[in-house]
Specification:
By secondary structure, the chain is of the alpha/beta class. The chain has one domain: 3-Layer(aba) Sandwich (Rossmann fold). It contains nine helices and eight strands. It has an eight-stranded mixed beta sheet, with helices on both faces. Helix 3 crosses helix 4. The longest helix is centred in the middle third of the chain and has 16 residues. The protein is globular and about 45 Å long. It starts with 18 loop residues before the first helix and ends with a helix.
Length: 284
């Protein structure tokens, strides 16, 4: 059975194409506290207009503060850092420095350009966070859906960080939220174009599970009908079979958007994701 992702059902976190999101995002941002942190917007990590990130810096960062990078979802075709203030606040309020990054989107770019963008984000943070109180050796790369794909690929395939003068040691850990790691074959024309074919295994994170990877936390809802939880199960099983350090958290009755919303305080009782991420990050 092809995944729903591969049939190109409109992604629920796209900025356009979902009236529900257009209503929901302002509602979520309206309850986000504006104190306890400052936002450094539109920091350029590369030369193109979408090579920008926002930094959320706590008023009182932890000693040698962890740095949490977040790549949003949108089927590699839509999305904006501007709608994820809640994510930035949630973790900067815990003393971490948070970076929410834009990256190149289809049709302007295709695989693997957005992965190279992700590598440039990590390099930029390695070079800049120390002056803000962050620890460049404690960069945790995270993402939701298509963004979790970027985070995972940076963790398991070293060619992207190698291409910017780094390597696997630049990433302390990876957190994937409702991620797509094993989603072939593709059936939608745009997705086939993005990934250079319907069955291009080179594009799949699971293919690189034999490489030495940073510790990973893979979180998924059991009712995710956009990116099935089997993506996390299969990826984790393969990583573990090669001796990699992986934790899997499955949340009963939680869907594709629910899992991300559950990080915000008004919805936090729906999952333990917030606590699970904090424990995972603080143990690294």
């Amino acid at each position: 059975m092809p995944s729903i992702l591969s049939r190109a059902v409109p992604h629920f976190l796209a900025i356009t194409g979902s009236a529900g999101v257009r209503v929901l995002v302002p509602a979520v941002n309206a309850v986000v506290p504006r104190t306890g942190y400052r936002v450094l917007p539109d920091r350029a990590y590369g030369p193109l207009p979408r090579h920008r990130l926002d930094l959320y810096v706590p008023d009182r960062p932890l000693s040698s503060a962890p740095v949490l990078v977040f790549f949003y979802g949108g089927s590699w075709q839509s999305g904006s850092k501007n709608i994820y203030r809640a994510f930035g606040q949630v973790f900067s309020s815990e003393g971490m420095i948070v970076a929410i990054a834009d990256y190149g989107l289809y049709p302007n770019v295709k695989y693997p350009t957005f992965l190279h963008d992700g590598a440039h984000v990590v390099r930029f943070l390695r070079e800049t966070v120390e002056m803000l109180g962050g620890d460049p050796s404690r960069i945790v790369v995270s993402g939701h859906s298509a963004g979790a794909y970027i985070a995972a690929m940076l963790g398991v395939n070293p060619i992207y960080l190698n291409s910017v003068g780094g390597g696997p040691s630049w990433i302390r850990a990876v957190i994937g939220i409702a991620g797509s790691y094993d989603f072939l074959p593709l059936y939608d024309a745009a997705m086939i174009d993005i990934f250079g074919g319907a069955r291009n295994m080179e594009t799949q994170p699971i293919k690189y599970a034999a490489n030495r990877a940073p510790p990973m936390l893979l979180a998924h809802g059991t009712k995710d009908s956009t990116v099935g939880a089997g993506n996390s199960r299969r990826f984790a099983t393969r990583l573990l079979s090669y001796g990699n350090d992986v934790q899997v958290k499955l949340y009963d009755g939680i869907g594709h958007l629910d899992i991300l919303l559950s990080l915000a305080k008004p919805w936090r009782k729906r999952t333990t994701l917030h606590a699970d991420m904090l424990q995972f990050i603080r143990s690294r």
